[in-house]
Design goal:
heterodimer, A: six-stranded mixed beta sheet, four-stranded antiparallel beta sheet, B: mainly alpha, ABC_transporter-like_CS (chain A), ABC_transporter-like_ATP-bd (chain A), ATP binding (chain A), nucleotide-binding (chain A)
Chain lengths: 258, 295
């Protein structure tokens, strides 16, 4: 299930603007990798290149290589739609489908990708909601609209929706930035649980969060306004937070800039 | 008066006065806007009620002499429903697909910009010009004669830009995050559009279509040039002159008898009721599909 990702010399562009440059790293399976760095340094852009969501934006393109185990995600014959089925994503703001019930939201990925039987859908919905720590809160109102839940519940609903299609990798773009501390805690617990089955990559502005949930941390930075973002260093999380190799990393995590 | 930021002062008389005056103006504007609406409705109901009966709704004007009472608008109701129905069948798919192209695929390309421009131009076409165009092209050049279809074509020329504009606006209101959420689940673009974007925008699109229908249902000039006028029932929209409610009102109101004028008023009332009924159906559809239901 969980798969390793290897990125080699990756550049991403918005039109003629180079947003990130020369990123090379390996993301281990069954672990949590956190991306930290100041705003605008390309963390989210880089995350979105991992499931080919970057190219959804008009004019955006990518150069370089991303290997998911032995598959080149940017190979000429690769269907981006199938990449996104394998590499799921949770967004910064919870975005349940407003026309759908809680049940339909979770089943959406399966239903929209082909016909499945009702009993099959029921099984997947229940297990996904349980995995997302949401089942007990919503099991009596599965037919109610997903948009009627609280923010934290909506975000867990989105996580359930993402894991219902059983991806190999789960990308999270600041999943807790719009949530209160209690919901954040629920999601962090969930991340620790999910890493047994998935490769998880999380972008966060909250360094305590990165320290709490991740196994490895990558620090991104940019030389200046209009310059492309670069990977400064990547290491085991305790090492990054206690004894980073680079001066810039130390300055950032100790709050001296950014 | 000196302005000192640290002192909290009561609302000055000047501001109170301005507030009152502007409030009064807003109320006045509202009243001015509502008076004609109410008076039109009142006049139509008062004058139309006299002949708004079963005979009116079930009989045509065939064999009704110039001075006879009785007769009805069945043929006109039928004609209007058929013409507006066909016009809707033509313009809604074309308009909706155009809007989808503009919002989901156009992305500011030259083609989408020129389509946008021509839709704007189309919005400004006077209805009589649309009728003349169909008269010249369909009726005279192709020699297909007066028919309900010719009228429907003229009406659809008028409907299309309205449908495109309203559907486009509604599709643009659908948050991009929903499209991204769908893509991130590995859903192809066409399915994202049909299963996520369209249902989300459905309520607004239905309202827009209804407004477009309401607009063309009352058109007289283009029908006069394309459908012509008849006193008999013609159920076949493909062949021969038909009637329409606006034409009926126009025709009857011209006649010098009180009986005819009463029929014209009843025809106007029927037209208003049909449009209101359609609106009601649309509201029901929107309510039934509304995402907020049962929250």
């Amino acid at each position: 299930m969980a798969k390793q990702i290897e990125i080699a010399d990756l550049d991403a562009y918005y039109g003629s603007h180079k947003a990130i440059e020369g990123i090379t790293m390996t993301i281990e399976p069954r672990s949590v990798t956190a991306f930290i760095g100041p705003s605008g340094c390309g963390k989210s852009t880089f995350l979105r290149t991992l499931n080919r969501m970057h190219e959804v934006i008009p004019g955006a393109r990518v150069e370089g290589k991303i290997m998911l185990e032995d598959q080149d995600l940017y190979g000429s014959d690769v269907d981006p739609v199938s990449v996104r089925r394998t590499v799921g994503m949770v967004f910064q703001r919870p975005n349940p489908f407003p026309t759908m019930s809680i049940f339909d939201n979770v089943a959406a990925g399966l239903r929209l990708n082909g016909r499945i039987s009702k009993s099959e859908a029921e099984g997947v919905v229940e297990s996904s909601l349980k995995d997302a720590n949401l089942w007990n809160e919503v099991k009596d109102r599965l037919t109610k609209p997903g948009a009627g839940l609280s923010g934290g519940q909506q975000q867990r609903l989105c996580i359930a929706r993402a894991i219902a299609v059983s991806p190999a990798v789960l990308l999270m773009d600041e999943p807790c930035s719009a949530l209160d501390p209690i919901s954040t805690l629920a999601i962090e617990d969930l991340i620790s649980k999910l890493k047994n089955d998935y490769t998880i990559v999380i972008v966060t502005h909250n360094m305590q969060q990165a320290a709490r949930v991740s196994d490895r941390t990558a620090f991104f930075n940019l030389a200046g306004q209009g310059q492309p973002g670069k990977l400064v260093e990547m290491d085991d999380t305790p090492k990054i937070f206690t004894n980073p190799t680079q001066k810039a990393t130390e300055d950032y995590i100790t709050g001296r800039f950014g | 008066m000196t302005l000192s930021p640290s002192v909290i002062v009561p609302v000055s008389f000047n501001r109170r006065l301005k507030n009152r005056v502007v409030q009064g103006l807003v109320w006045l504007a509202f009243a001015v806007a509502v008076v004609p609406l109410i008076s039109v409705l009142w006049l139509v109901v008062k004058n139309g009620a006299a002949r708004f009966d079963t005979e009116f709704l079930t009989h045509s004007m065939r064999n009704i002499g110039a001075r006879d009472a009785g007769g009805g608008a069945y043929h006109a109701i039928l004609g209007t429903l058929e013409q507006v129905g066909v016009a809707t069948l033509i313009s809604v798919p074309v308009g909706l697909l155009t809007a989808i192209y503009l919002v989901e695929y156009g992305q500011g390309r030259r083609l989408s910009r020129s389509i946008s421009f021509f839709v704007d131009v189309m919005t400004g076409i006077p209805s009589v010009v649309a009728g003349l165009f169909v008269l010249a092209f369909w009726v005279l050049v192709l020699g297909l004669g007066y028919s309900g279809i010719a009228g429907a074509l003229a009406l659809s020329i008028l409907m299309m830009p309205t449908v495109v504009r309203s559907a486009e606006e509604m599709l643009r209101l659908v948050p991009n995050e929903l499209r991204e959420a769908s893509y991130a689940l590995g859903v192809p673009k066409w399915k994202t559009i049909t299963r996520i974007v369209l249902p989300t925008a459905l309520t607004g699109i239905v309202t827009g279509v209804m407004l477009a229908i309401a607009r063309v249902a009352g058109e007289t000039a283009p029908l006069l040039l394309t459908v012509f006028i008849t006193d008999s029932i013609n159920t076949d929209p493909f062949k021969g002159p038909q009637m329409g409610l606006p034409l009926y009102v126009f025709d009857q109101a011209q006649r010098p008898n009180v009986t005819a004028v009463d029929r014209a008023w009843a025809g106007a009332l029927t037209l208003i009721l049909i449009v209101m009924l359609l609106n009601l159906v649309a509201r029901l559809i929107s309510w039934w599909r509304s995402p907020a239901k049962g929250r």
